[in-house]
Amino acid sequence: MSQVAIFNGWKVVINNDKSISVFNNGVLCDNSAAALREISNEMGFEYKDSWNTRQHGKNVVDEINKRKKKGGCLKKLIKLLIFLAVIGGVIGLIMMASQ
């Protein structure tokens, strides 16, 4: 089963044969290695010039998915904080109204 990661209009696919396909806004890139370097630079992700395309592609996919997972946790935390702020506001209103 292939792995996929999406970042800012880029789609990086690790195919079943472990080859790498990179799409930019839905268009297959002719040069996956150059596209992976561009994605890494956009992400601020350090890569090694010694990596081949398969290594670079796997590392980029892993990094994108890792960041998404962290971002998901952050979104949940923000929602919780907003919820608590709303509850705090409601409690404050109830207390003011009861005085």
Describe this entry's structure for a reader:
There is one protein chain. This protein has 99 residues and is of the alpha+beta class. It contains two helices and four strands. It has helices spanning 32-43, 53-97, and strands at 3-7, 10-14, 20-24, 27-28. It has a four-stranded antiparallel β-sheet with strand order 1-2-3-4, with helices on one face. Helix 1 runs parallel beside helix 2. The model has no long low-confidence stretch (mean pLDDT 89).
Defining traits:
99 residues, alpha+beta, 4-stranded antiparallel beta sheet, 17% strand, rod-shaped
- Give the ordered list of helices and strands: EEEEHH
The average pLDDT value, as a whole number, equals 89
> What percent strand?
15-25%
Distance between the termini: 64 Å
Cross-sheet strand order for the largest sheet: 1-2-3-4
Uncertain segments of ≥5 residues (pLDDT<50)? none
